[in-house]
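Typical record is below.
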Amino acid sequence: MAPTNKDDRKAALDIASWMFNVATSVGIIMVNKALMATHGFSFATTLTALHFATTTIMTAVLRWLGYIQPSHLPVPDLIKFVIFANLSIVGMNVSLMWNSVGFYQIAKLCIIPVSCFLEVLFDKIRYSRDTKLSIVVVLLGVAVCTVTDVSVNTKGLIAASIAVWSTALQQYYVHYLQRRYSLGSFNLLGHTAPTQAASLLLLGPFIDYLLTTKWVYSFDYNAMAVFFIGFSCVIAIGTNLSQFICIGRFTAVSFQVLGHMKTILVLFLGFFLFGKEGLSLQVFLGMILAVAGMIWYGNASTKPGGKERRVPNEKSHKTRSLSDSEQGDDEKV
């Protein structure tokens, strides 16, 4: 009875974590869309810096209140993570500027196979045939929904490649750091958010000027714009935290696959809130295909053998045991 209760509790926490991530991610996209489309605040990199600055304040308060215990993250690992994370943010923004929306969406879809490659390479993960096929179905469904015109140039391809690899590495590294140093989500945020905030606050205005030819300092900060900026920062705390929670509980690949559920929800809410222009049979069928693929992935990846770490075969295990035994005998002599 105890294992069942434990499994039920884990499943409930997994669902709650995922719903938390979906709610905050979709919410921040809606708020940012209103901020940028309605109020003209198009400085995405600086806005991200403010998100991490707000998250830093939150983690500092929680540490002061005793909810976050002291932990250790080596500086080299922290620097690697921040480099990957910042390249991901800047790379995605530049990719959107230099490429068509269609190719930008294709690049985002490429994060999944790259994340799979990283898990196979570093974690020796083995995927079943059903798990692989379900990922393909998800990619096809999201592609049908989101990919329209596709055009690319050399500098756009370079930017997209940097964005894809850095995003996959950043998300893989979240899981790696939590596992290696036994860091909780709040602990890891407490280590990484201040450095990301500081670096992006320094670089953000220049990157945004490159993207928009406008300085963030010259923006008309009226009351409504400031309200939406503040609202976006508050939601970002949950978004940043829920990302770390989900990747820690699942993996970077599962986070990406199920993350496309947010793409479908954003499309649906966009049609519902901002008009049905662009809604077609193709988009509708793509949504159904993507959701079916996600359900299939969830079922296939949790079955025995659906997604597991490779273990040494029996022969190599015996050889290693014999070698260890011989070494022990030599030491005794």
The CA atoms of residues 144 and 282 lie 7 Å apart. The chain has one domain: 11-332. Residues 11-332 form one domain.
